[in-house]
Design goal:
Shape: elongated
Radius of gyration: 31 Å
Number of domains: 2
Mean pLDDT: 80
């Protein structure tokens, strides 16, 4: 047993003390943090270019242009921007970021918080021109003026759009209006024009129905809810839409953490095995230890590497949640499940990597053998959204019992909001570890036969034959 731990320590030390590993594991998070900080700084200090120009509105009634002048009035633009600031400050407050109206008390300025989501911090001065004519020639003239830059945009409003929509008609089948914009117009400014013209049409519809437009639009505006999640103990915790969106990302974060830790360590295991085999170092090692001891030591050593990676990244994640007072987004038991499924995932992946590394002498040969298995293991990554949204569904259940996808599918399920049928958690843990032991047994068979074989790489059928060797 001492030989196994000597090999494990050698494997761990040679991997962890390399500059490339330190740069990749420690440098990458620091680089991401630096990029995130620089991005936030750019957003805070970003000034949208001014939106100045003329928008032509062509409609048979001529009333949409008058309504558009109201919608594009600076007071209306300022009101919408103020709403965005208020929403942004609410989100910042939920995340534990202190805010002030002017930034005078040390908190960030409200406008700075809203800068990343705002459609325009820059100046907006739009003149509305009422275009005459709705025939093809008149529309062609409007298009030409948009192309040559004399107009920012041109809207053509058919009469059918001004009629009250039939609730029985699906939205995608209702009449639409045409909007032509300049090729170099910013996408956020395009959204602003599109939205304001649409609201102008609603104003005309409200007036036709005998309603005061502002009152009607205020009446139809959706109120904000004060949502609270009730627990079995009778307690409740406030929950906003932004909190729900963050919670939807938690299962993906857990799975990516598991994925990065296990596959980084497994990749190092396979590469070191192939390198030692191609350099004939393997023959020297096997003169002192058995193939089983060598494989066990290498797997344990790289397991320490994977555990170190997961500890670093999970500590950064938990630290960020504590900093932003968002620890309520995760259940502490999820961290326990993360550790349980990490060992299962790692030893499954390590078994595959050790078997392939011992059977081949070149990385290209290894990729050929690994491709089918890697495609299977990519399934939880591609289906993370349906699995986490419906953790009790048939897709999630099926992949929770198919090795080697068990730990990746299960961490998505247990970290999701909806509970998993309780019996499935111990069942998948027991079945997963049983499959893990079987995979390690098969890996040992392949490793023992292939570790001293050179030349033509084995085919999948030959690997199956190796399993029958005593």
């Amino acid at each position: 047993m001492s030989k196994v731990f000597i090999i494990a320590w050698r494997e761990f030390r040679q991997t962890v003390l390399k500059k490339a590993f330190l740069i990749g594991i420690i440098g990458v998070p620091l680089l991401i943090a630096a990029i995130g900080g620089a991005t936030a700084l750019i957003l805070i200090n970003h000034e949208e270019p001014p939106l100045v120009g003329t928008v032509a509105v062509a409609d048979a009634s001529g009333r949409v242009a008058d309504a558009a002048r109201i919608e594009f009035h600076p007071d209306q633009i300022a009101e919408e921007f103020a709403q965005q600031v208020e929403q942004a400050m609410d989100v910042a407050t939920e995340m534990g970021i202190p805010t002030t109206a002017s930034g005078a008390s040390g908190g960030p300025d409200a406008a700075a918080i809203a800068a990343g989501a705002s459609f325009a911090r820059g100046e907006v001065r739009i003149e509305i021109e009422s275009a005459a004519g709705m025939d093809d020639a008149a529309i062609d003239r409007l298009r030409e003026r948009v192309r040559n830059g004399s107009l920012l945009a041109a809207a053509v409003i058919p009469s059918a759009v001004l009629e009250a929509p039939d609730p029985a008609v699906p939205e995608e089948e209702r009449p639409t209006f045409d909007l032509f914009v300049a090729d170099d117009l910013d996408s956020q400014h395009t959204d602003l024009i599109e939205r304001r013209i649409g609201q102008a049409i609603v104003r005309v519809r409200a007036a036709d129905a005998g309603l005061e437009p502002d009152a009607a639009m205020a009446l139809l505006r959706r109120p904000w809810s004060s949502t609270a999640r009730l627990t079995d103990t009778g307690e409740f915790t406030p929950e906003s839409s932004s909190t729900r969106e963050l919670k939807q990302m938690i299962p993906m974060a857990f799975m990516m953490l598991l994925w990065i830790a296990t596959f980084t360590a497994g990749q190092h295991l396979m590469m070191s095995t192939i390198e030692e085999k191609s350099n004939r170092v393997m023959e020297v090692l096997l003169s002192a230890v058995s193939p089983m001891q060598l494989m066990s030591g290498k797997i344990i050593g790289q397991g320490g590497v994977g555990l170190l990676i997961m500890a670093i990244y999970s500590s950064l994640g938990v630290g960020s949640l504590i900093t932003f007072a968002a620890m309520h987004l995760i259940d502490p038991t999820d961290l326990i499940y993360l550790a349980v499924y990490f060992f299962m995932a790692y030893f499954m992946v390590a078994s595959l990597m050790a078997a392939v590394g011992g059977a081949v002498s070149d990385i290209r040969e290894a990729n050929t053998l690994l491709t089918p298995v890697m495609l299977l293991m990519m399934v939880p990554l591609m289906l993370w959204l349906p699995i986490s949204h419906d953790p009790g569904g048939p897709v999630a259940t099926v992949f929770s019992f198919i090795p080697p996808t068990i730990p990746f599918a299960m961490i998505l399920r247990v970290a999701a909001d909806e509970p998993v049928p309780f019996w499935q958690i111990p069942a998948t843990i027991a079945w997963g570890y049983l499959c893990m032991l079987a995979m390690m047994w098969m890996a040992a068979k392949v490793f023992r036969v292939g570790v001293l074989m050179y030349g033509k790489p084995p085919s999948p059928l030959e690997l199956v034959k190796w399993l029958r060797y005593s």
